[in-house]
Amino acid sequence: MLIILQSDVSESQVEHVLARVAELGFKAHLSRGTYRTIIGLIGDEQKISPEPLKAIPGVQDVVRVLPPYKLASREAHPQPSVVDVAGVKIGGGHLAMIAGPCAVEEPDRMDRIAEAVKAAGANIFRGGAYKPRTSPYAFQGLGEEGLKILREVGDKHGLPVVTEVMDPRCVPAVEKWADMIQIGARNMQNFVLLTEVGRTRKPVLLKRGMSATVEDLLMSAEYILSQGNSQVVLCERGVKGFDKVTRNLYDVASVAVVKGLSHLPIIVDPSHATGRPDLIPPCALAGVAVGADGVHIEVHDCPEVAKSDGPQALLPRQYAETVAQIRKLAELLGKSISTVSK
Amino acid sequence: MLIILQSDVSESQVEHVLARVAELGFKAHLSRGTYRTIIGLIGDEQKISPEPLKAIPGVQDVVRVLPPYKLASREAHPQPSVVDVAGVKIGGGHLAMIAGPCAVEEPDRMDRIAEAVKAAGANIFRGGAYKPRTSPYAFQGLGEEGLKILREVGDKHGLPVVTEVMDPRCVPAVEKWADMIQIGARNMQNFVLLTEVGRTRKPVLLKRGMSATVEDLLMSAEYILSQGNSQVVLCERGVKGFDKVTRNLYDVASVAVVKGLSHLPIIVDPSHATGRPDLIPPCALAGVAVGADGVHIEVHDCPEVAKSDGPQALLPRQYAETVAQIRKLAELLGKSISTVSK
Amino acid sequence: MLIILQSDVSESQVEHVLARVAELGFKAHLSRGTYRTIIGLIGDEQKISPEPLKAIPGVQDVVRVLPPYKLASREAHPQPSVVDVAGVKIGGGHLAMIAGPCAVEEPDRMDRIAEAVKAAGANIFRGGAYKPRTSPYAFQGLGEEGLKILREVGDKHGLPVVTEVMDPRCVPAVEKWADMIQIGARNMQNFVLLTEVGRTRKPVLLKRGMSATVEDLLMSAEYILSQGNSQVVLCERGVKGFDKVTRNLYDVASVAVVKGLSHLPIIVDPSHATGRPDLIPPCALAGVAVGADGVHIEVHDCPEVAKSDGPQALLPRQYAETVAQIRKLAELLGKSISTVSK
Amino acid sequence: MLIILQSDVSESQVEHVLARVAELGFKAHLSRGTYRTIIGLIGDEQKISPEPLKAIPGVQDVVRVLPPYKLASREAHPQPSVVDVAGVKIGGGHLAMIAGPCAVEEPDRMDRIAEAVKAAGANIFRGGAYKPRTSPYAFQGLGEEGLKILREVGDKHGLPVVTEVMDPRCVPAVEKWADMIQIGARNMQNFVLLTEVGRTRKPVLLKRGMSATVEDLLMSAEYILSQGNSQVVLCERGVKGFDKVTRNLYDVASVAVVKGLSHLPIIVDPSHATGRPDLIPPCALAGVAVGADGVHIEVHDCPEVAKSDGPQALLPRQYAETVAQIRKLAELLGKSISTVSK
C-alpha cells in the first residue's frame, strides 16, 4: 500500500503518519520526490483497509497494490476452478447451460418446459420459488411449494436444479431441495445472506449487482469462500446503463477481466442483461466467445402468461436454436457443454 | 396503460391482444393511426404489470400512465407527511439533524461524540451496530452489544437513536433498542427486510440504493407502507457515477423530484454521497436548499482511528459550523431544526 | 405520437392542446380513459419534435411511436447496406479488419506496422494525423504530413486507409488523402463536422460517443446521410462506465440493437472499449459473435514508445493470432474477411 | 508519478523500466516492498503522459501524483479568478445571472424576454444563433442574423450577451457580436474549437460535457488558457445518468470539487441539468448554496412555441421569483448578484 502525502504536508504530519503505520504493524519506506513524498507500507497489505489511513491529516491518497480479496484470487488458486453441480461440471472448458422459467409455475408447465430445455441441450434447470419483485403487489413466488415442484421436475428429467434464495431463514429449505443456490443481483451485497450460503456446502450461483464493480463481485464471492464454501460460480447479468434501449448494459468484457483476476467460473445471463428476446441469442454467443463458462437463459413456453418477466424469455424452439449455435462455437473454442452424469 | 402495436401487426394479432386485455379484466380502446395502432386500457392500471403484455406477439411497447406505487404517492396523501421519531419531527418544515459515527464504538467515545453533536444542534444520534462491509475481513460491528451502547448514550444525552438493520432475524432487537430503523443502500431492494420492518411500528429511514431510480425508491417505500407502517423517511445518499473524484454522485435533484411525487419526508446524506469531508458542508447546504427535510452526517472525534469509514466523517467542530449554516438557511426557507421534545 | 394529459387537466387545457395539434397540421384522436386522457396524433410524426408539445400546460408526457431518424432506419432500406472502401466491402457478410497505430508516426515504423497487419489479415490501415488529446501539452499529430505518410504506406502495401478528421477546415485534405474518413467519439455530436463529411462522397467511419444512446448514434448518422453521403459505417467503442477496471464499458449488445433498427454496417473497437491489450482478443471475438461487420484494433510494434495510446495496442504477433481466431469464427457464422480487390 | 511493477516482474524488466525512465529525463527512485516493487519518478511529472509507461512489460499501473493541468490549477493561481463580461463580474463573490431563450428567435420576442429578465435581476442575456440539434431536421438557429438580433436586444436593455459557437469558422463572427462565447457540452472536447476561442480575448463559458469528469473539464479549460485567454467560466449542466426522471443528473458536488482544485469561476445550469421547469428553482438554489458563481436559466415567454427546448424554460414570472430567492441566499452567503456597470 502506498500513502501519497499532500504537497504541503508538514514534517510533524509525516511523523504522525509514520507513527500510525508502525502502530498498525507495518514497516514504512519513505520516499521524498521533488514534488511529493510517498510512504510505502511493507507488510501484509490485505490485513488493513485504506480508509482510516486516508483520514490522517496530510494524506492525499492511499493506493492499494494488492487486491483486497485472497481466496477468490488467481494467486491463491492458479488453475481455473471446476464447480460440480450434482454431476454437471462448470469451468475448465465445461459449459453450464442453465435454462427455465423466471418463476416456478404450475407442475404441468414446469414439466413441459423442462422436457423442452433438456432436449435442447440444457444441463441445469432453473426457476424461482422466491421472487424479488420491485412491487409489493406483484407475484412473489410459490415459496417452499415451488421448491418441491422444481425438485420433482428436475428429477423426472435428470436435470440438477438451481433456485434463488432471498431470506437467510429460507437457506435450509433451499439447501434441502436444490442442487445450486442462487444469490440474485439485488442481494449481491446482502452480506448476511452471503455468509449464510457460505456455511452450506451447496454450489452457489452469485449474480453481479447492477452497480457492482468486478472487485465488488469478487469481494462478495470472498464472503462465501471465507465461510468454507468453495463452490462459487459468478454470473454477469448486466449493469445499470443510461440507454434504455436495453434493460441493462451487458458488460461482456467483465468476463475476461474476471478470468484474469480469479479462478472462479463465470457465466453470462443475456436474458436479464438485455431484457429482449431478439438480443438473447447474439449476446449468448458473445458471452461464450469472450470466455464465459456457461449461459443462463430464461425459457417459457408462453411468455405472455408468464408470472414474472415474460418478455425476456425465449420460446423453447428459440432456445434450441441458440444452444445449437453455442455448441458449434464451443467446439471451435475447444470447450463443450457439460452432460449430466447422473 | 397504453399498448403500442408494431407497424406490421396483423389483424389476428390485434384480436389476440384485445382478447388478452379482456381476460385481464380491462376494457380496451382501440385507436388506429396512420402509422401505428394503439390500444388504451381502461380499468385499474395499478393492478397489472406491463411485462406480460410486452411479451404478446405484435406488441412494440407498453406505456404506463400511472405510477406503480399508491400509498407512497402524493395523490394518496396530498399533504406532506410528518414522521415522529421519539418526539423529533421530520417533514412539513421540521428538519432532522442526524449525526454520529459510522459504527458504534466503545462507550466513552460514543458519549463524547453524542455530547458534541447534541451541543452542535443534532437531534437524532446514529451509529451502526451491524455494519455492511464490502470485505469479510473488515470490522462487522458490535452487534446487540452495540445497540445497547447506542441506547444508553442516546438516553443520557436526550437524543433518539437510529441504527441499521441488515438481517431480518435482528429486526426485533433493533426494534427494541432503537427509535428509528435504518435500511441501508445495499438493502434498499432486500424485499424480505423491507417487509419485516414494515411489520414493526418504528419509523424507518430508507436509504436510496446506488443504482436505484426514484421510482425504485418509492416502490421500496411502498413495501414498508403496504405492511401498515406509515413512518417512512427517505434518504438520498448518492448514486453510482463515472467520476471517481467523489465516492458517489450526489443526486440532489432527486429530492425535488420526490417532493413532487410523494408525501414522504426525504433527507440527504452528504457523507456517503461524497465521501469527502471538505465537500460535506457545501453539499449539506445544497440539500437543504433543494428542499430536504434533514441532513445525515457522520461525525467522529478522531477519524483516523474510526472503525469504519473514517475519511468521510466531520470533526465535531466542523459539524457545529455546518449546523450553524444550515440553521440560517432553514430560517430563510421558513423551516426549523426540530428540537427533541422529550 | 401520443400526448398523455395530466390527471387534473382542465377542459380548456384539452381544447388548447387540440388547437395546437391542429396548428401543427396533425389530426388528433382523443381517447378519454378512466384515469387519463390521451391524444393520438395522426400525420407524419417525423416532421415534429415532441419537446414543444411537452411545454403545453396540462401535458404530462409525449411518447414517440416512430424513430426520429429515417434514412438510417431499416424501414427505409430493408437490406443491410454494404459500404465499399476502395474495394474493401463492409457489411452484408463482409468483415472489415481495420488495424494500425493510434497516431501516424515516422514512415519507417508505419511501413513495418502496415506490412505486419497486412500479413496478419488486416484489410484497412489506420493512423491518426490529427489527434484529439485530452491535454493541450500532448502530441497532437503530424497533420497533413501524416496524411501523406499514411497514403504512401497504404499504397505500398495495397491497403485502403482511414484517418480521423477533427476540424471542418481539414475535411478537404482528409478527403484528398484518405479512403475513409473517421469521426471520433468526442465529435459524434459535432454537427458541423458531420454535415461537412456528409457533403463528401467518401465512406465515413462514425464512432459512438461515450455517452451516446443508440438513437443518438443513428441521429448522427442521419446528419451524414441527409447530406447525400450514404457510405456510413458505425462503430461501437465503449461507453462511460462506473468500473475503472476497463477504460470504457464495451456495449456489445448495442451492435445487435443497431442491426434491428438500421441497415448500416457496424463494427467494434475493442482497443478503445477496454483500453487493455489482454482484453482485446476475447472482446474482438465477442464483437464478431454478436454480429459486428468488422473489428478495429490498434497495433503498434513497440507500444511503450507509441506517441499516443500505447497501452491499448496489440503487438503485430498478437494481432495475427487474433485475426486467425476471428477468421474461424467468421466462417462458422457464414461470413468472411473482405479481401482488398485493388 | 509512481510506476507500480507486477508481482512477477523480472530483474531485466526492472532494468528496462529504469532505462526508459532515464531516457525520458527523470530520476528514478526504486522501492522494493515485500510484495511489490515501486519506482518513483523524480522530475516534472506534468511533462509526460502515463500511457506509454503503462505499455512497458512488467508494469502493472502508473499513478499520477500531480494533476495534469497547470494553468487551471489552484496552485497556479491561489486566489479565485474574477472574470469580467463587459462590466459584469463573475467569481470572487459576484454572481452571474444568465438568462434568455434557448435559441435566438424573432426580435420582438427577444426584446420582451430581455426586458423581463433584466427586470427580474438577470445581468447577462443569452440566446443561441447556432444550435446543436440532435436531429438534422430540427431548427438549426438563425445564424449570423441571430447574432445581430442578440446584440441589438442586449444593447437596448443594457445586458452583455453570451451565445454558443459550434464551428471554428464562426468564431470571428461570434467574437464580433457577443460579449462572451459559449462552448456547449457536446463540444467540450472539440479541441479545435477550444484552441480557436483560446486565441480570442473574449470571456468563454465552457459547459461540462455529459460524460466528462471534473479533470476532463479542467483539461478542456487548460486548452483555452494555454492559448493565452484567461477569461474562462466553467458550467455544470448535468451529466448522463440512469434515471430518466430528469434529463440529466445534476452533479452539484462537482462545483465544490472544482472550487478545491481550480481558481476558475463555475456556474450552474439547472435548465439543462434537469430539463424540468418545476425542478429549476430548487436546483438553482442548491447550486448557489454549494458555492456556484452564478446561475444559467432558460427563460421563454411562451415555451410551447419555443423553437428549441421549450419544456425546460421558465416563464419570466417564475424566473423573477427564482432570482428573488437566489438574492436572499446570496446575501446569507456574503455574495451578491453582479450589476451591469455599463
Describe the structure.
Four copies of one chain form a homotetramer. Chain A has helices spanning 11-23, 50-54, 107-120, 144-157, 171-177, 191-198, 214-225, 253-261, 270-274, 280-290, 316-332, and strands at 2-5, 27-32, 37-42, 59-63, 83-85, 88-90, 94-100, 124-126, 161-164, 180-183, 204-207, 232-236, 266-268, 294-298, 336-337. In chain A, strands 7, 8, 9, 10, 11, 12, 13, 14 and 15 form a nine-stranded parallel sheet that branches. Chain A has a four-stranded antiparallel sheet with strand order 2-3-1-4. Helix content of chain A is 34%, strand content 19%. By secondary structure, chain A is α/β, with parallel strands linked by helices. The first copy, chain A, contains eleven helices and 15 strands. In chain A, strand 5 and strand 6 (88-90) form a beta hairpin. In chain A, helix 6 (191-198) crosses helix 7 (214-225). The first copy, chain A, folds into two domains: 2-63, Phospho-2-dehydro-3-deoxyheptonate aldolase, domain 1 (Alpha-Beta Plaits), CATH 3.30.70.1140; 83-337, TIM Barrel (Alpha-Beta Barrel). Chains in contact: A-B, A-C, A-D, B-C, B-D, C-D. At the C-D interface, helix 2, helix 6 and helix 7 of C face helix 2, helix 6 and helix 7 of D.
Q: How is this structure best summarized?
A:
Four copies of one chain form a homotetramer. With 342 residues, chain A is an alpha/beta fold. The first copy, chain A, has helices spanning 11-23, 50-54, 107-120, 144-157, 171-177, 191-198, 214-225, 253-261, 270-274, 280-290, 316-332, and strands at residues 2-5, 27-32, 37-42, 59-63, 83-85, 88-90, 94-100, 124-126, 161-164, 180-183, 204-207, 232-236, 266-268, 294-298, 336-337.
